Amino acid sequence: MNLEAAMRLAVQQAEKVKGTTYPNPPVGAVILDRDGEVAGVGATEPPGGPHAEVVALRRAGERAAGGTAVVALEPCNHHGRTPPCVDALVAAGVSAVAYAVADPNPIAAGGAARLAEEGMAVTAGVLADAVAGGPLREWLHKQRTGLPHVTWKFATSVDGRSAAADGSSQWITSEAARADVHRRRAVADAIVVGTGTVFVDDPALTARLPDGTLADRQPLRVVVGEREISHEARVLNDDSRTMVIRTRDPHEVVKALSDRTDVLLEGGPTLAGAFLRAGVINRILAYVAPILLGGPITAVDDVGVLSIAHAQRWRFDRIEPIGPDVLLSLIPG
Ligand SMILES: NC(=O)c1ccc[n+]([C@@H]2O[C@H](COP(=O)([O-])OP(=O)(O)OC[C@H]3O[C@@H](n4cnc5c(N)ncnc54)[C@H](OP(=O)(O)O)[C@@H]3O)[C@@H](O)[C@H]2O)c1
């Protein structure tokens, strides 16, 4: 298997543990033996557990000697809750290491240099864009800014409406698209809505499995706005924790969630507009259904653009059919 194919496998491993590793990054690792065959794969275990390289090395056993470690993030070079991964790679007798993204954390960095000093062939930047824009996107953002990565997710008709004229919006998209949203909720750290959505839809904002039962991991539910919501609101039920933030300032919301990494904004057009005007959205996920609703309720209110010359520019980083719908993923242009 070549390095890129092995890195794709490492990315798949990393995707599987997203949401379970904080404050550590979700990393995947693959050990190729000296013939280039996969000898072990692994991903970061929950905090306090071994990092991806160590899991993959254990699975590879003696086949790691003389082989190649392919890791999504530069192996760490420091003693945290677990010993440095570079020590484990040296001890296993690996002869080459390839990684995608350098560790931006100055405390953990320096792994590549240390491995090169140990005589290993080190290759940096293998599928770097796929990793930095994929499983590590939210964690890297958090490392850079100290703030959570915010994804605005919404369901829309093809004519850009997020609800019918009477305010009803359940359900615009298909069951398959909704299942995808629940998978994303289960790996997110928080889901944010405005009081308007609570009043109109009374959502539970939980992550549920296709059979309707609760997923093992539930994000924090966050309600933003100055009005008081009913004690009977489903968002206040016992299925998960809920934070009510009595503000209309998106920056205050993001700061209040600065101990989180991956935040999903699922509010209606008012809150989405406020967050877009404030420039605190890092990705947009639009689930577009092949229906027309017309009417006055657009997916987003004023985003502060008065003329086409000042349009907010984004670019598609992924376009994926989901059942009869399409998921558009956009990042700042
Ligand atoms: N299609 C979808 O993906 C989707 C998703 C969610 C909702 N919806 C639909 O959206 C509709 C509800 O829309 P909505 O816009 O009222 O919901 P919203 O955006 O979730 O909530 C709006 C409320 O948020 C508060 N708020 C917080 N920050 C604000 C700010 N900077 N500026 C203004 N208000 C701020 C205000 O309440 P206070 O007065 O309490 O401050 C405001 O009324 C429903 O029809 C629902 O079905 C659709």
From TrEMBL:
It comes from the Bacteria. NADP(+) binds at A155, S169, W171, T197, D201, G268, P269, T270, L271, A272, G273, A274. Its EC number is 3.5.4.26, 1.1.1.193. Residues 1-123 form the CMP/dCMP-type deaminase domain. It catalyses: 2,5-diamino-6-hydroxy-4-(5-phosphoribosylamino)-pyrimidine + H2O + H(+) = 5-amino-6-(5-phospho-D-ribosylamino)uracil + NH4(+); 5-amino-6-(5-phospho-D-ribitylamino)uracil + NADP(+) = 5-amino-6-(5-phospho-D-ribosylamino)uracil + NADPH + H(+). Keywords: Hydrolase, Metal-binding, Multifunctional enzyme, NADP, Oxidoreductase, Riboflavin biosynthesis, Zinc. Pathway: Cofactor biosynthesis; riboflavin biosynthesis; 5-amino-6-(D-ribitylamino)uracil from GTP: step 3/4; Cofactor biosynthesis; riboflavin biosynthesis; 5-amino-6-(D-ribitylamino)uracil from GTP: step 2/4. InterPro entries: APOBEC/CMP_deaminase_Zn-bd, CMP_dCMP_dom, Cytidine_deaminase-like, DHFR-like_dom_sf, Eubact_RibD, RibDG_C, Riboflavin_Biosynth_HTPR. One of its GO terms (molecular function) is zinc ion binding. Substrate binds at R185, L205, R208, E266. In the N-terminal section; belongs to the cytidine and deoxycytidylate deaminase family. Converts 2,5-diamino-6-(ribosylamino)-4(3h)-pyrimidinone 5'-phosphate into 5-amino-6-(ribosylamino)-2,4(1h,3h)-pyrimidinedione 5'-phosphate. This is Riboflavin biosynthesis protein RibD. It comes from Mycolicibacterium novocastrense. The lineage of its organism: Bacteria, Bacillati, Actinomycetota, Actinomycetes, Mycobacteriales.
